[in-house]
Amino acid sequence: MEHAHGQQQDIAAPAQGQQHPIGIYLKIWGLLFVLSALSYSVDYFHFQGYLRWFLIIVFMLLKAGLIVAVFMHMMWERLALLYAILVPTLLLMVLLGIGALEADYTFFTRGVFFLKGLL
Amino acid sequence: MTQAQAIQTNPGEPLHLPEGVQGVVADWSSDQRAFKKVPWGKAMMWIFLLSDTFIFSSFLISYMTVRMSTTVPWPNPSEVFALTLFGKHIPLILIAIMTFVLISSSGTMAMAVKFGYEKNKKVTFILLLVTAALGATFVGMQAFEWTKLIVDEGIRPWGNPLGAAQFGAAFFMITGFHGTHVSIGVIFLIIVAIKVRRGDLDHQRPGFLTGRKGNYEIVETMGLYWHFVDLVWVFIFALFYLW
Q1: Which residue from A89, A93, A92 is spatially nearest to A72, judged by alpha carbons?
Q2: Mean pLDDT by 10 residues, chain B (243 residues)
Q3: What's the fold here for domain B39-241?
Q4: Which of A115, B188, B209, B241 is most buried, judged by most C-beta within 10 A?
Q5: Alpha-carbon Rg of chain A, whole angstroms?
Q6: Which of A39, A40, A61 to mutate against chain B (most B CBs within 10 Å)?
Q7: Could you say which of A43, A73, A107 has the minimum Cβ distance to residue B71?
Q8: Where are the domains of chain A?
Q9: 3-state DSSP call for residue A62?
Q10: What are the sequence ranges of the domains in chain B?
Q11: Taking the model in full, what pTM does it have?
């Protein structure tokens, strides 16, 4: 019993928690401001087409990554927790693909319907 | 003897946890606590946030599906959310300000967690209140935005005069759900701030959210939720407002 208790203490002793210098939070904060300003300028300067898409997605993923990695401390957690959270999230790409296929098909059938109406 | 057994059967010595992929296997195997070095409350908050990720993703993917499949032009968010400030017409400015407000609240929250672990009650309390105030500001601006859209622009969940009918449904559903999350977050930020100020977390005062063992971990768990709300906004901002 004593041994078991000792082990419990070892595993469940996160007393100090996640402590990091304040500088890293301020730097990431600043970086998030810059990235948000860049995202906004994509709209402000009317970038269009693939360039717009590329910039929006890149800035979005960079911001999301910084928030999760630093503000939510994921880069300092053990890999088991990181995988438990991130791998299921990646599965959403399948749903995204299904949604896009479905939307394309619906758009196509609607096009056919309206075309028939014109003839 | 496998790595997992080695962990289980050496209780007296400090734990030698394997790193990398081996660490993943060892942490998950056998009848033991999977998430090491994190309090259970924090692990459970992560699991909750994972489920919330799926909810918001379902909303955003449904929005993508209806927007891609409609044959009617989509209202231009850049114009819908433009404001005239000081006699100048600025596109999407309201949303940009809301974004900066929410990011600022994330910054103050991250620092509140840091000062919490240092047991600096005063600074933690102030930073938590600033975070709550910024969150409330965000919700206030959202209320302004909704009012403008419903009253002035005549946008309804079932249709609007600007274009595709699906615009209203997607907009109210996604931003409404996000705004609810922010509002709940503000309430809990105030509760945690009061607990910090009273010293509940030092004295392990029993009570709501601190029933087990009061310590500054709950500030970090609260922070996870708050950063998640900011994280969701990053995706909404990019996919709904900038598309």
Answers
A1: A89
A2: 48 72 81 80 92 96 94 87 81 91 95 91 95 97 94 90 91 96 96 90 74 75 95 95 89
A3: Four Helix Bundle (Hemerythrin (Met), subunit A) (1.20.120)
A4: B241
A5: 23
A6: A40
A7: A107
A8: 1-77, 78-119
A9: helix
A10: 1-37, 39-241
A11: 0.86
